[in-house]
Each structure stands twice: as C-alpha cells, then as structure tokens.
Fold this sequence. Notes:
Strand content: 5-15%
Low-confidence stretches: 1-10
Helix content: 40-55%
Amino acid sequence: MIDMTSVSGGKTPGWHQRLSFVVAFAAWALALAINGAIPFVTLPTLGQVVWTMGFAQSMAAQVPWALHAIHFGAPEPAAIAFGLAGAFPASLLLRLGFHTGDAYALVACGWLSVAFLGARRMACVLGADSVRAALAALCWLGMPMVWMHSGYSMLSFGMALLPSYYLTTWQLASHVTARTVAAYLAACIVAVFMDGYTFMMFATATFAHLAMAMAHGPWRRTLAWNTIPVGVAGLVVAYVLYSIYIGKGQFDAAPIDVFRAFGADLSYFVIPTAGIQWLPDLIGATTDRRAASLFGDYSVWTTTFILPILVVAMIAFVTHYKRQRWALVFALLAFGGLYMSLGPSLKISSVMDPPGASQATPTLMPAAKAMMPTGTAILDGHVPGVKNMRASYRWLALGLLGMWLLMVLAMVSRHDDNRHGAWTFACLMVIAFNLPHLGRLWRDGVLYRQTLTTIDQATDSTLGLALTQGETVAFLPFNNDFLANYVAARLRIRALNVGGDKNLASAQAHWPFRMKQFQQGAVDDLFVDRVAAQLASGEVQAVVVPYVDMLWAAHFWPCPTVLAMHGSSYLKVHAEEAPGDCPDQIRKAMAPTVEQLQRDETISVRQTPFYAIVRLAQPSGNATDDFLTSVRRAVAFPATMSHGNAAVTWLLGLGWYAAETDHVWSGPAATLNLPLPVDCRLDNCRFVLSVQPFGASPQHPMTIRFTEGAGKLPLTCFVATSADRRNVSIPTTQPLSEVSIDIEGARSPASLGLDDDARVLGIALYTIAVSRGAPPKMAGTDCGRQA
C-alpha cells in the first residue's frame, strides 16, 4: 500500500542495547515524575482525583461491568462525562483492595506508560533508533501542555496519548489488516472515552493523514475502498458508543465569548510564565502573570509556551519538506492546531479592564477587547464537536503533535547523517526548556496524596457517623459539587448532587421538583421551607449543609488558602483563582439559616466540624403522615402560586416550571399534593383551582384531565376551546391527595411563533382554594366541552 520506506529505519546495534534500555527506562521514569504519577508516593492532582474516584468507587460497589455511578446524581444513574477510560480501570483496582489515591496513581502511571511507548514507537516508525526514540517520547511527555494539565486528569492523559493515537492511523494507512484495524478501533474508543478534546484532535489528524496519503500515495484505490472507510467507521463507531453511554448526541455549546476568552495569546507562545519551567526561570526569561487581569484561567498561560519546539519545527520543515513528503502533513497539523488555538480573535498581551469598567469577565471576552477576528468563529459556532471545544487554546496540543513529528523527522533523516547529533541536541534543549521544577512538583504530589487521606478521615468521622448506607441525601445549597461524588460513593449513600458541569446539567433534568426549586449556590427566603418540604415528603432522608466549598474543597482541602500554605508555586498558581472560603467563614455565613432550621420543632440539626446534618425530628415512619402534618402547618388556603410563596414548595409535585409573578406553568403532565385542612371532612370540602390553558382555541381544543393516585381515579376533566382563565373544582378523596393533571394538545410558544420559548406549556395555575359545601361528582371517562 503506502510506501513508508522513506521514513523507516534500521535496527539498534547489539552492543548498544543495554545503553538503549537504560536510556529508555530513565526517560520513562523521568516522564512519570514530571507528570506526578508515582504510585504509592505521589498524586498528579487532587480535585480531579476526588471527582474521578467518586465514579470509580461507585462502579466498584456494583457488578464488575458497571459503567455508571449510582451513589450521586440521583435519581438516575450518572454517566461520567469524560474519563471513563480512567475511572473504569481504577474501579477494578479498587476491587482488588487498593486505596483510592493509589488506584488513581496506578491508572495514571499505566496510561502515561502507554503514551510513552506509543510516542517511542511512533518515533521508531519514522526511523529513530531506540535512544533517540526514548528521548523523543520524553520530549513529548515533558511538554507543559501535557504535565500542566494534570489538574484536568483525563485531558492530560488524552494529550499524552496523541502520538499513540496517530500511530494507529499511520499503521492503518500502511496496511489494512485485522491487527491494524483492531488497534485503530481501540484507539478511537479509548480516545472518545478519555477526553472529547483529544478525540477531535485525533480525528483531525486522521483525516489529514488520509488526505495526504490519497494525494501522494500509489495505492489510491485501496485507500478509497478499504482504509478511508475503516478510518471513518472507527470514529463513527466510537462516537455512537459514547452517545449511547451518556444518553445524548452532544452537550450544549458555550457562547462564542467563552471561546475568545480561552484562546491563546500570542505572547504566551514566546514568553513563559514565571514559576512554571525550571530553565526559563533560572535564566530570568519569564514574566509574571496574574489571573486577576487575564482572560481564561491559569491553564491558558501556563501550558502554551512553545518557542523552543516551534523554532526547531520550523527549521526542520524548511530543511526537509522537499525530501520528506510527510513533512507537509506534519506542518499542516502544526499550523492548524496553532491557528485554532488562537480562538475567534487575535490577542497580543490582552488584559481585562479593571473591575466594573466593562462587561468582560475572565471567561467572557467581548470581541472589542481583541485586536482582530481570526475567522475561526464560524467553526467554533457551527461545526459539530468543534463547537463544544470552548477552551480554544487546547487545540495547541494538535499543533504540538505536528511540531514534534517534524522534529523527530529531522532527527532521523537519512539525508542529514552528519547532523543527527545537532538535531538530537535540539531535542534535548526542548526537553530542558520544558522541564518543571521537579522538587516543587514532588512536594505537591506528596501533599495531594496526604490530603486525600485527610479527606477520607474527615468524611468518616463526620458524615460517616451521621448518615446510613442507602439513604437519599441532598447537599444544600447545591453547586458544582465535586466533593459529593467522592463522599457519596465512599459512604454508599444516594446523593442528588453531582460534580462536573455537564454531569450537573444531566442530573438536574431528572431531579425531583423540590430539589429543582433550590437556587444554585444561594440561600433565599424559602430555603428553610424547601428543606422542610424535602424531608417531610420523603424526597430525601437527610439534608447536609456543608461548611466547606463542595467544589474547591475537593481541590484544596479544606480550603485554598490553607492548603496553599503547604504547597509549592504550582499549587499556589491554581489556588490563586479559587474563590472557595474556609469552613469558619462558611459556617458564619450559614449560621442564620442553620439557626432557623434549629427553631423548627419538626427538624433536628446535628453539627459537625465540616457539615450540619438535618433530619426530621421525630419521623413517624409513614412519609405520607409526616408530609400531611408538615404541609398543614406550612400552608394556608387560598394559596397563590407565585414566586416566593412557600405554598409552591409544598403543593406542587412533578412537571412544573419555575414559578412566575402570579402563576406557575405546567408541562403536558404534572402533579399536585393537596392536603385536606383539619377543619374539613371528605364529604364537605373541595379544592378550587384557578387555571388557564395555554393556546386553546376552537381550532385547537385541549383536553385536561384530573386524576388521583397511582390508579388514576378520575376526578374531573374538560375540553378547553379558549385560553380563558377558569375555576376547576376537585373533589377530596382522602386527607392527602396526589392529583395528576394530563393535558392533551399542550404546545410551546415557539411552535406557535409567539417567541423562542421552547417549553411545552399545559396550564397556568394561579391559586388553589378550599371551598366548603358538597363536592362535585366524580368525572366519568368522557369530558364535556367548555368555551
């Protein structure tokens, strides 16, 4: 098929084998140390270990083939948004008895070893001997783009594996055999379940390589009928498997201003950030950068220094593109990745205005703050996959792959036998310029491992003594609760909370109605009522009020300022952006709310150093009786269904949207919890609902049915031919009725061309009143038509 003789090399001389082994082992060990993956000694990071190992612990508590978490993100099983390729093998190690931190470190060591071997093999395929191949592999794993992303866990593994992924494409294009097809398909599946960014980069590199092979290879027919279909099919199969696993085709795209904020600044490419790389710091060639004045986050300006490899790659291309046809595709990868990493706008030393001077924020950069557009906005905004890659600068990993391949190509070129030493020296210089402060990394890695043990002890001594396995628990106020993953899985409880913005969005879609009513990261006037309603209804058995920031405590236990005191400059760079308060501050802020909960005689509050655990004071054992007692105390009729009214919390069940000024909209199906007042009997009271169907007309009649209980006992129904507001009488059948409302013909405002509101609206509920007197007769199966 494709002639690869122009880039193939010979075998390593026998007398050189021992030296080759020593160099390869030393390079591999140094690569692991740079990336903080020394099992039983260090951890690469903390926050992502906590998040990922929550999934791994939950999987380990189930059958061996379990791929979802069941202990957080309830009520539905939680699919890990990215990183299944790391979480699942970690769950297998947990089954063998390894500690969570050691299981993660072993997985990290394993994938980084695969990455080292893959990069080494790719260099050998291009013609490198074993020594140069080992140095090339170390050079790749020593890129700041790889090791400075350890805080993003599987993203760093995915970047490390890019040469390994590309190797399978190269081999597939060389020979379509069962082995190369299987290796390529495995790479596609690992890539998509490791990280979405690097999967897209792998796909881009694959298409570029196959296009080059078609343009210049002698086996175009074989490529067209065999290789390209297999290449496309592998990517499609991987994407379909991922979509089935997470239950959707893709996640929501971010605004274009986010892409712009996270685009790389040209100054980052040529001037390293102080405190990151050892040699630039030593020679004073760095600049200090602070999160307070820059767009994006610390990863944008600490991972994107590329000047050494860029210079080497440019010289390699100029001197080899006429003799090595693959130099062109490598250069295209380098340029394409570099260009896409800029984001929608060109930036050169761009900074934010002082606070309050503009609408710009670290994560939202207006176009006016940039020099000029780059033209990538059309890709970022419309191309599937690309429009989900909101951190534009990460495309630089693809560019670095092209630069690295150009460097390796120059190192092994047969036309430059006299210059092999110079190119090898250039590789060593790239390694040297990218080396981190190893002592500082080691210090942080040891600290991360010790801190994870501290989290274990704090969890077991507080929540472990207050919660029972299998209980449903809500951590409130909720947020992007990384720590909930770890704590819930460790204690085998079922938390409604989950960490990860994508996982949170998925969980919220299935949350019970009362959990949906809480405001993210905030305590409002109805917080205590909602907690009481949650507990009384049996929606949860316990509510936990954390005195730690459930996002940032997972990264810096117990808070950023405390852990940063013991860490190095790397940890401090990350902690500088973390707004998480310490437990004393959070406890003080939450004190009025907790005191209000303590004053409620139906509720008990247990205080611990890091959490307050809230339960029903004296549960009867019958959730219906508990809820009836509580709702009678909390709600007075008539009740207005308006935002800020406690009745909304107690009376509404499933299927309702957020309450508005004087009403609340239902979806096509909804439920109500209607408690009979103490002074009423079943035979002398009825509920009166003031409702308004949405969009009903003679041309579009709507059938609204009211039924009671699981058996759907008919209560009343009518056919609406107008959108007029009306009263509906509901007979009482028991002290606490769960009334279901089903609306046939419900539509969205968008479908009627009224506005862009895509919500399917059934009825607007304004008030619920109680009327004394003989209740109406129960409805039959037919509904009468009303104007």
